[in-house]
Amino acid sequence: MSTEEQQANPPEPPRSLAEALRTRDDLTLSALLRARPDLITPVPTDLTQLATRAGTRASVVRALERLNRFALQTAEALAVAADPSSYDELLGLMAGDEPDETTAAALPRALGTLHEQALVWGPDDRLRLVRTARELLAPSPQHPSPTGLGPTVAEATAGMSPGRVQEILTTAGLPSTHDSVSAVASLSALFTDRTRMAELLTTAPAESLDVLNRLHWGPPYGQVTAHPAPHLRWLLDRGLLLPTAPGTVVLPREVALHLRDGQAHRETEPLAPPVEAAATHRPQAVDATAAGQAYTALATVEELLKDWDEGGPAVLRAGGLSVRDLKRTAVALDVPEPVAAFWVELAHTAGLLASDGEADERYAATPAYDEWQELPAAERWTRLATAWLTATRTAGLVGGRDAKDRTLSALGPGLDRSAAPEVRHRVLTLLAGLPEGTAATADSVLARLSWERPPRGGSRGPQSPRSAQSPTSPQSPQSAQDDLRSRLARWTLSEAESLGITGRGALSSHGRALLGLPPGTPAADDLPGEPGDKLPAHHQHTPAAPAEPLGTAERSAAALHAARLLAPLLPEPLDHVLLQADLTAVAPGPLRRPLADTLDVLADVESKGGATVYRFTPASVRRALDAGRSASDLHAFLSAHSRTPVPQPLAYLIDDVARRHGHLRVGAASAYVRCDDDTVLGEILADKRSEPLRLRRLAPTVLAAQTDPATLLDGLRSLGYAPAAESAEGDVLITRAHAYRTPPRTAPEPVPDGPPPPDDTLLTAALRAIRAGDLASTAPRRTSAPVPDGTLPRTSSAETLATMQAAVLTGEALWIGYVNAEGSASQRVIAPIRVEGGFVTAYDHTADEVRTYPLHRVTGVAELADDGA
Q: Cα–Cα distance between 353 and 464 in angstroms, integer?
């Protein structure tokens, strides 16, 4: 068709959302399915089913919750506009009588977003909001509109008597009509006529105008007594207030819009609030600070799991960590309890910590922890940071209450929040949009997130009617701090700093790499169109969405890049310590693992920080001897790993403990003590402190006890002796450090926030299936009798076979109904190639491939019209 013919015969506007979707190309349909992935779970059979699914309440609610504030305000304006509405009417509702350039420039883009997501359909002169969205956003007494507008005159007078309507017309100075419909239309015309309405209000008492000023920004409902005051009676008589229930009146929508100069919202927000800078630092200082925090994070996780090496706290019956055990962990880590909960949850999320699943269930490190410890420090950090970025478990909720008023415990159920990964990613992406080394103010980040995803119910919640007799201060909107996304954002800023993703509040270079962003890449913003840019709404493109979280392969590549950037910034592990004369050793930095493991057995950690101080005590030296080290081994170890000479007091301590170590032998009788020096055994029996051990002499060199060997060992050690355990053969038992591990455990899976966005492969396959199914359901057919839309064709077996054989000869396409082995019925368009042995081989336009079908599963067949092949 030529351009002149198209102009002379313009296409008919779509009559339904399904028809509007059929006019879309694959690019715009793909954009819809990406924005609303729930629409292809499962893949719809055709575009009619896709449109039906796009109009379901759950799907529409989900789509509305993902609109930015200005796009949501546009949908709210359409909900109170006429159906259908024009673009100019919408612009008037959004910007008032005198639109500003910013709103006018941003509106096409916002409307384009609504078109793309199938929340609005139709051309610019017939814009329609999908019915479900209109029901969700339109005003009602139970759920006032977020715009603060009330019902229209026609809706408010629906139950009013015709005589009362005529009285209102007369009092308002309008001529009487013959029926209520024309009377309501006449009253609506008066309220929408700016000139006549202004003249009417000039005659109103000042108190009446006062009432209108209190109601016109909402809530529009007020209360009146049975005998209203004169200034209220003046409004009621002219229909400027209309009764909705005994004692309740409402301000009609048309009157409120006149008082608002045509605006649906008190204030529109076409522009995203900027993320403001709090401070600027040198990028090198930011990276160094973040690297220090990253090293501290690794040390904290190692200290936590080392503390639980022989089995950690017990698992509560309801799951999780008890309050007492969390307090003990916080004391051991020297951090506040909320911070301890974060580290415990992080180790669990990374798969390093889990419950053992035994009858006496306890928490312990997993085998993955041993593998993690063998990795370079930078790679260990990326494992933690990547797990945190993608986790839905939210440590900030620990200590709060769930819906049943139960306390939420660390490692327990109820901590998953599906929005957490997206919020974390978005907060860090906003920081990436600032110049390198620049920290953002928390309030500006929260304001930006609140604009991109307005809080649920912030302006939709039901509000109590306001009294029309006296002024009332407007209700304050929902505080952003009460919003889950705002709390998640605050936790993200704090946790990112603790992990070393940010330093001094600014995103580090390795943090930027972890997000998959090259240096200097700004965050994608929802920017409005250029001033004066007023293309038809259905030609607008959706603004570039914020960067999406990475896929699995991309995340691995980003983690490797981040590790390469972080590695040079982390301190190199040392192979030496500095021994001091006060029986301490100073580690001026992180130690290599064999050295650190041995020193942990030989000495106790006294203080931590930039340098770690270890203290040698008789108990710690005995612990090393119990682990199988000899005195000569310990002297050699210290000489090899100390940059200073081994102090004499330390050498004497080792020799003294070693000389007495194993002089007493404890074995199992129930338990016994033997010693070659019978005077030592006599001293033990004479010591009153040994009475709880219930010892008695069996022989000059043997004492028997009525306690188990472990209790006897501890008791003798408390008396100042250094006994050694021995086996049934009389050999000394070496008690090496024991690290308890759970069976292999997988890290907890994130709880998804609905279906994941489809990849290109799934989108291509889904579009092909939908298009083919739509072809099969809408193709013109040549049938002897009309077939109801959506039903399968029905023909006899002989007729089906004959039609198939004829189509093989002519090469024509056929429309068939088919029932598969599972009993699922479908419609298909096929081009038969061969019919034999009870099967038909045909090119299936629906599946876009050659397939073979059993003839007995074909319910019927019909020829397509000439223009339908």
A: 50
